[in-house]
């Protein structure tokens, strides 16, 4: 997925870029509206994460100019303002969603997913490994004649593995990416989801291996 | 001690009272003056009659063979007496000696002559009499004889005429007064119209309307209109500055918080030491707590502000509920919560109330439902319409470890036991309570069997 981040805080932009790149996305950062306008005119992005207060203007004007050109690229506004009237205004001028700073990466990811799901049909990207194909926007896995739906956390877990197959992930790493910081996570929470995924992948040629004392990885049978 | 009376009268009423008072004074004066003139006219008429009668009497005084003879003019007296059944009295004295008439009739102080008779009023036998008196010298037997002749007439007829005319005069004056009041009313209305139009122009404005008022007003109102426009202009500028300040303040507070949070989150993902991970989690939770408290306090301030000035608008209530629910779906996905929304409201139902307060109430209820729900559980939302209300019921499963104290639920900064690990400010439900009170709705939150919390919001149709 190609993401354009329009954010004037270099630190926040950097963190966002790192996070999104960890999820195997291609990210461009524009620190002002001029650069954002240039990027969006020369490249197609799957989604734009747009800050409002930028050094050379208001992000809402940028959003209006995009919409006035009948460009329906998904836009999520990252706003520091939490007033309901501001939120309503943002949706009225064409934002697909908004997220209030500071936000949790997983929430941003969930909102991106929801927005992209609404726009699905345009860029439904699939992840493949072994004989399985994962459709993140429709939360489905496909192998052979099987089509199995996944719950959100199962999907996120499978995405993590499919993005980096055969790579080991510790339980902590998975916990961080699977749960909200505010969630009360039990010791065996990750194991529960690993167990569920294993069941769903039972008839495919991939499985999630446990490497004792280290973590888990996605492997395929030869 | 001076006691201040604050009589809050409108300009129109003040004007009406003043004009009415002036009309009353003019009418009263007119009535009195006309009555006085009328009374004088009636008296003058009576005086003319009395003069004629005394002249007639004088004509009947003869000197025959050096004797003064008076031939009383009964026809004249009868004529005088027949008018309004008035009583006639007369007395003739010669050289101070009673000659004829009523001998006990008192003598007036002043006597005129035949050219200029003297008139006076006097009480006699319980009647007020108009008296004409003359003194005349008659020569007989080479001697001067001073004759004093008095004719008096009661004033029944004059009084009756005066009363009749006064009654008519009173009606005419009353008509004049009422007409003057009507004109006063019209004048007050006409005078007040530009002010009323100006006031209406200001009154009809929505709270967000900060356009200048029209300066097409009477000269006297121009300074007010100009001052108001200057005030609006300053207010708009201050409001813009405040909004910009709040936006910038939020930006400058929340952006660094975002950096702290995102950096901490990235650090957490890379950290392998349990101690460091615990510290980073604590930092992130503190940031979340700060952010949440700031948002809730802002919401609370907004609700308090709107308590004074609710901004009612017409909107589709089921559409508003559906939009809010859709905005919460991604957050629900994070906990694998299923939101099941059902509604029996088919037609577009428009309500007229403060949408921001309604949104705030529903958002806080949903936020609570999602926050305290067990992962992978179901949150059901039913939206129905009764005869009097729209009913929104939100049910969610919560951890049985959480103690739900019904009495503390809506109190500020009070949170349930076993909820300390869940980020929250304890303001959410108190904000809901205040918001629903302002919009005339009601809220009930109660625990049900099977660890279900049920929040019911009733919004009047």
Structure description:
The complex is a heterodimer of chains A (222) and B (461). Chain A has 222 residues and is α/β, with parallel strands linked by helices. Chain A has 8 helices and 13 strands. In chain A, strands 2-1-3-6-7 form a 5-stranded parallel beta sheet, with helices on both faces. A 4-stranded antiparallel beta sheet of chain A has the order 8-9-10-11, with helices on one face. A two-stranded antiparallel ribbon of chain A has the order 4-5. With 461 residues, chain B is an alpha+beta fold. Chain B has 3 domains: 11-163, Beta-Lactamase (2-Layer Sandwich); 208-309, Helix Hairpins; 311-461, 2-Layer Sandwich (Heat Shock Protein 90), CATH 3.30.565.10. Chain B is 51% helix and 22% strand. Chain B contains 8 helices and 14 strands. In chain B, strand 13 (442-448) and strand 14 (452-460) form a beta hairpin. Chain B is rod-shaped, with a radius of gyration of 50 Å. Classes of the chains: A alpha/beta (222), B alpha+beta (461). Chains A and B meet through helix 1, helix 4, helix 5 and helix 7 of A and helix 4, helix 5, helix 6 and helix 7 of B.
């Amino acid at each position: 997925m190609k993401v354009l981040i329009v954010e004037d805080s270099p630190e926040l932009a950097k963190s966002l870029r790192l996070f999104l790149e960890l999820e195997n996305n291609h990210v461009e950062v524009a620190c002002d509206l001029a650069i954002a306008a240039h990027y969006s005119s020369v490249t197609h992005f799957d989604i734009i994460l747009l800050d409002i207060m930028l050094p050379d203007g208001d992000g809402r004007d940028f959003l209006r100019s995009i919409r006035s050109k009948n460009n329906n690229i998904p836009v999520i506004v990252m706003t520091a303002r939490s007033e309901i009237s501001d939120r309503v205004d943002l949706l009225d001028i064409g934002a697909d969603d908004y997220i209030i700073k500071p936000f949790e990466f997983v929430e941003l990811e969930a909102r991106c997913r929801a927005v992209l799901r609404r726009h699905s049909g345009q860029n439904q990207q699939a992840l493949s490994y072994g004989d399985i194909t994962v459709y993140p926007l429709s939360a489905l896995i496909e192998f052979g004649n099987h089509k199995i739906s996944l719950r959100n956390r199962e999907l996120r877990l499978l995405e993590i593995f499919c993005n980096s197959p055969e790579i080991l992930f510790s339980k902590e790493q998975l916990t961080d990416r699977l749960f909200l910081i505010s969630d009360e996570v039990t010791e065996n929470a990750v194991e529960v989801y690993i167990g569920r995924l294993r069941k769903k992948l039972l008839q495919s040629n991939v499985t999630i291996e446990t490497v004792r004392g280290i973590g888990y990885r996605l492997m395929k049978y030869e | 001690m001076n006691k201040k009376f604050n009589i809050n009268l409108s300009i129109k009423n003040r004007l009406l009272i003043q004009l009415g008072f002036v009309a009353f004074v003019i009418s009263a004066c007119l009535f009195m003056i006309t009555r006085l003139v009328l009374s004088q006219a009636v008296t003058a008429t009576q005086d003319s009659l009395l003069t004629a009668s005394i002249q007639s009497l004088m004509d009947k005084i003869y000197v025959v063979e050096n004797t003064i003879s008076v031939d009383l003019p009964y026809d004249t007296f009868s004529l005088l007496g027949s008018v309004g059944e008035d009583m006639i009295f007369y007395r003739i004295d010669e050289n101070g000696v009673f000659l004829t008439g009523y001998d006990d009739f008192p003598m007036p102080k002043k006597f005129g002559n035949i050219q200029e008779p003297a008139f006076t009023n006097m009480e006699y036998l319980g009647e007020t009499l108009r008296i004409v008196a003359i003194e005349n010298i008659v020569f007989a037997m080479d001697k001067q004889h001073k004759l004093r002749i008095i004719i008096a007439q009661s004033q029944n007829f004059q009084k009756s005429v005066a009363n009749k005319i006064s009654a008519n005069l009173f009606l005419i004056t009353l008509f004049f007064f009422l007409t003057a009041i009507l004109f006063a009313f019209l004048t007050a209305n006409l005078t007040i119209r530009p002010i009323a139009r100006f006031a209406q122009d200001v009154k009809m404005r929505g709270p967000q309307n900060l356009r200048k008022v029209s300066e097409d007003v009477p000269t006297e109102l121009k300074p007010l209109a100009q001052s108001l426009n200057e005030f609006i202009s300053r207010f708009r500028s201050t409001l813009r500055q405040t909004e910009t300040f709040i936006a910038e303040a939020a930006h400058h507070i929340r952006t660094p918080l975002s950096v702290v949070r995102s950096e901490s989150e990235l650090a957490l993902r890379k950290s392998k030491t349990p101690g460091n991970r615990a510290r980073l989690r604590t930092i992130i939770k503190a940031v979340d707590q700060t952010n949440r408290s700031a948002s809730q306090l802002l919401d609370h301030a907004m609700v308090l502000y709107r308590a004074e000035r609710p901004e009612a608008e017409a909107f589709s209530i089921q559409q508003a509920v559906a939009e809010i629910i859709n905005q919460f779906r991604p957050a629900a996905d994070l906990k694998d919560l299923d939101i099941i929304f059902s509604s029996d409201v088919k037609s577009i139902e428009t309500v007229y109330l403060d949408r921001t307060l309604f949104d705030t109430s529903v958002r806080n209820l949903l936020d609570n439902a999602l926050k305290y729900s067990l992962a992978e559980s179901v949150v059901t939302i039913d939206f129905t319409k009764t005869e009097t209300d729209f009913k929104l019921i939100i049910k969610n499963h919560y951890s049985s470890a959480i103690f739900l104290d019904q009495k503390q639920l809506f109190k500020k900064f009070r949170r349930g036991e076993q909820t300390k690990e869940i980020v929250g400010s304890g303001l959410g439900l108190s904000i809901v309570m205040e918001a629903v009170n302002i919009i005339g709705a009601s809220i009930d939150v109660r625990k049900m069997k099977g660890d279900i919390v049920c929040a019911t919001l009733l919004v009047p149709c």
